[in-house]
Structure formats: structure tokens, C-alpha cells
Amino acid sequence: MNAASFFSPDYATARAKFLAAAGAAGGTVATYLHPLRGPEGEELATDAVRLGPADAHRYLVLNTATHGVEGFCGSGAVVGCLYERLDRELPKGVALLLIHAINPHGFAWLRRVTEDNVDLNRNFLDFSQPLPVNAEYAPLHPFLLPRDFTGEERAHADAELLKARERLGPRGFQKAVSGGQYAFPDGLFFGGLQPTWSNRTLRRVLQDQIADATHVLFYDFHTGLGPYGCAEPISGHAPDTDGYRRLLAWIGDCVTSAHLGNSNSTRLSGTIGYGVEQALPNAIHTKTTLEYGTRPNEYVHLALRSDGWLHNYGDLASPRAKEIKALIRDAFYRDYDDWKELVYVRARQLIRKGIAGLAGQ
Ligand SMILES: [Zn+2]
Questions:
Q1: How far is the centre of ligand 1, averaged over its atoms, from the C-alpha of 122 (Å)?
Q2: What residues are neighbours of ligand 1 (ion), with CB under 5 Å?
Q3: Less CB within 10 Å around the terminal CB: N or C of the chain?
Q4: Cα 112 to ligand 1 centroid, rounded to whole Å
């Protein structure tokens, strides 16, 4: 195994590897074309492949690039899964669904958000109902994304954020900034005002590919929180639920929960797991985020502010844009062989555990 070879330097290469490997594994790839193009004019799409026994109704679903630029990680994991033919290990009754780049626009353009600045993992809400209010975000917004990102205005903004961090505490500050907000469409962690393309596409993929599911175990690959190369399975279920108990039984007590305060993540609104449940209402669902560490929080936070500033006020053709794109790529993807190996080895362990868990149902 050369895990580094599973990973790709950009979206187009990642997609080509996935399509070739899925074909070589005997799968039929379903392609969902995105209406826009990538920075090099390349086609953007979500691609999905179902592998395993035709009569299987219990599915392990591996979903990647929910947060665009985090897709380097998930793509490497699913390509590795195909190169190593983990589908050949599937027991009777269990199949795999691999979803490559549910947010292809963000992956290609090196953004965490979708083409409409939406945080896809805050976008799965019932938009006919009043949206969650994150009152702590509003006063921070002008300081997170000041118009002038270099001079005095920036220094003032940083000082104000520091004060807010002291007032709210590190966890309170993290929740205010990243928990999700629905009031500033040009802001950070904006959850959208309607289901975005990637939201609608995920539902289509699930309905097209695995409408027959009786059990779904959903792994959603992310990066940017936690120690270098470590995977934190963050439960998609509240404690004291059957879903949480299944995760503990199948994956182990490394499973964390934002409800219990033992996760690097805080509680979020509108996460993707709700979309999976809605798309497949007759299945029993077990869902977890797999959050891989990259860089310290402060580094990731600065990368997100910089990228938000660039797309609000900057010039995408400028040398500054190149620097910021390098910064955000580096914040969410550690382009080193040891990091890739850590990512893949842990992914493979968790995939095997998940398959064994589903097999016991
Ligand atoms: Zn993420």
C-alpha cells in the first residue's frame, strides 16, 4: 500500500482517479453535473458508485467534500478503498455507496463553502420553519471579514475578536463563529436560505442509488479540527439514542459527541445527516462525521477569514489570491505522505468496523 498515491493535488485529478478506479472495480458510476465550471474551465460533478451484492440493503455510505476544500482527504480515502478493493470484503447483505465530491465547486475552487457561499453542513434545515438565530455571530461579523484586510482596520478587527474570545471563552467563541448563522449571506458559516445544489444533489444520489436501503451507516469525511492526521468520529446522534449506541458498539469509545462536550466540534445546526434521513425515511440510520486534524484552530480560522475576504472584496486574479488559496489548501489538506497514510489507515479501519457492524444487523 502506498497511501500517498490515493490522494490528488486538485479536484480534476481526484475525479479522474475516482472514475478510473470505480470503473476498474466493476462499478457503474452515476454522474450529477454541476451547472458551473472549475477555475481551469474543468467540468464539475458529483460522482457516485454502488458496489457490493445486488441484493444487499444495508449500506455503508462514504460521503466526501461536503466542505469543498476538505475533499482532498475524503477523495483519498474512497480512492484507496477502490484501489484496495475493500468491496471484495463485503459480507452478504452489505453494500457500499461511495460519493465523490458532493460539493465539487468548493473542492475545485479551494473553498469550504458551495458556489453560493453556503456551508453545506449547516444547510439541511426545514426552510418553511423559522431559521435558527445565532445572536452571538452578528456583532462579530464585521470583525471577521473587515473590508481592509491588511491595515489598521484589520488590526482593530483582530483586537475586537480577541476581546470577544475572552468574553465568550474559547468554546463559546467557536460556537458563535462556526455553529452556523442564517443572517449574513456573505459571512462565515452561513447556512443558506434554501437548499443549495449540493443539498438537492445528495438527496437525488441517495434516492437514485440506494432507495432500497433498510440500514444506512453514513460516514462524512471532514478536516480542520483536532490533532494532525487523527480521525475523530463525531456522533451524528444525541447521546441516549439507539444511533449513538450503535456507533459506540461498532466503532468503539473513540466516538465523541458535541452534546457531551468531549468533541473538538461544537453543536451545529442543519447538518447533512438530517438530509440523509429525510432522503431515506424508511431506513434505520447511523451517522457520524469523521473529522481529521490538520493545523491548529487559529491557523484554520485565519484561512477561512482570508478566503471569505478574498471572495467578498478581493481580486481572484491577484497574487494575493494565490497566497490565500495556498493558505486555505494547506489549512485543510496536509500534503505530506505521513498525513495521507494516517488518514487512509484510520479510514480503512473505520470502514471495516462499519461493515462488520452493518453485517450484524
Ligand atoms: Zn468540514
A1: 10
A2: 67, 70, 222
A3: N
A4: 7
pLDDT tens string 53-78: 999 999 999 999 999 999 999 999 99
Phi, psi angle pair for 156, to nearest 5° = -65, -45
175 Cα to the center of ligand 1, angstroms: 14
pLDDT value of residue 189 = 97
Instruction: Look at residue 316 in the predicted model and tell me its pLDDT.
Output: 95
What is the grid cell recorded at 151? Answer: 491595515
Cell numbers linked to 106: 468548493
349 vs 289: CA distance, rounded Å: 15
pLDDT tens for each residue of 180-235: 999 999 999 999 999 999 999 999 999 999 999 999 999 999 999 999 999 999 99
Q: Which CATH superfamily is domain 3-127+192-294+334-359 in?
A: Zn peptidases (3.40.630.10)
Alpha-carbon Rg for the chain, nearest whole angstrom, is 20
Q: How far apart are CA 110 and CA 106, in angstroms?
A: 6
